[in-house]
Automatic annotation (TrEMBL):
PANTHER family hit by this protein: LATE EMBRYOGENESIS ABUNDANT (LEA) HYDROXYPROLINE-RICH GLYCOPROTEIN FAMILY-RELATED, OS05G0367900 PROTEIN
UniProt signal peptide: none
GO CC, alphabetical: plasma membrane; plasmodesma
Gene source species: Olea europaea subsp. europaea
UniProt entry keywords in alphabetical sequence: Membrane, Transmembrane, Transmembrane helix
Localization, UniProt: Membrane
Protein name: NDR1-like
GO process annotations (BP): defense response to other organism
Spans through the membrane: 16-38
Length: 219
């Protein structure tokens, strides 16, 4: 009996230790899973242009303006769609271009870095001063009923955070083209999503397809 008691006394702390070890192992595994999730997360914040206004191209109530307004008004939305992970943005570089290709930069703007919680959205609305826009051609084009295209490129680095784990900095580089008509506003009513990768202009899409499917192109 006394021997059994001694055994029990021995077994008891060992059992506690065993339970403790199990808890620690579960805890460590949980931390590792969070760490892996944070670092392998491929979902990027979504960026879109809600508004884009070029007053110089508004020929509806500006038809007599002798001086060109060099400013572009923009309204950008940055959304974190993740419900477990928050995002830390570095300084965001915005580059505005005239035309669909990034060949004629006309304006730069930086948005201060910020922190964005889970499932949160942020809006940045401001004005950028442009330089070197061929306004004469642009005004001519919209006056004739055609549209003028601008391009916006966004570049920053983001870090993802879950609990107290931070991922490494990841590049976020997205862009979009915006079509403007004689109202000075974007033709597309809906917000324009900025996407990564080079968007092939319409006339070269066929070529891009031919490159992607050389077999078909040969026919
Ligand atoms: C345009 O400007 C001229 C000279 O300043 C003026 O006579 C004319 O009424 C203006 N037209 C409009 C539509 O504002
Ligand atoms: C606009 O139309 C006028 C007259 O038809 C033409 O001379 C001019 O080149 C056109 N401008 C553009 C940008 O298409
Ligand atoms: C943003 O612009 C600054 C200044 O030109 C540059 O140092 C930085 O590397 C740029 N950031 C990104 C993500 O391109
Ligand atoms: C220009 O675009 C705006 C916004 O989409 C639209 O309301 C307007 O009708 C367009 N104007 C012309 C002349 O197409």
């Amino acid at each position: 009996m006394s021997q059994l008691d001694r055994m029990r006394a021995m077994a008891h702390p060992i059992f506690i230790l065993y339970k403790l070890c199990c808890l620690i192992v579960v805890f460590i595994i949980t931390l590792l899973i969070i760490l892996i999730v944070v670092n392998t997360n491929t979902v990027r914040p979504s960026c879109s242009i809600k508004n884009f206004y070029v007053p110089a191209l508004n020929r509806l109530d500006n038809s007599n303006a002798s001086t060109i307004n060099n400013f572009i008004f923009f309204d950008l939305e940055l959304k974190n769609r993740l419900d477990q992970i928050s995002v830390r943005y570095d300084t965001i570089n915005l580059t505005f271009f005239y035309g669909p290709k990034p060949s004629l930069p006309i304006g730069y703007y930086t948005v201060r870095g910020f922190y964005q919680g889970k499932k949160k959205g942020a809006q940045r609305r401001d004005v950028v001063e442009t330089h070197g826009v061929p306004w004469f051609d642009a005004v001519n084009a919209v006056s004739n009923g055609s549209t003028v295209v601008f391009r916006l490129e966004l570049a920053t680095k983001v870090k993802f955070k879950e609990w107290f784990f931070m991922s490494k900095k990841r590049n976020l580089a997205v862009s979009a083209t915006v079509e403007i008509n004689n109202s000075g506003k974007k033709v597309q009513k809906k917000a324009i999503k900025l996407t990564s990768g080079i968007q092939a202009p319409a006339q070269t899409q066929a070529q891009a397809q031919a490159q992607a499917h050389p077999g078909k192109a040969a026919i």
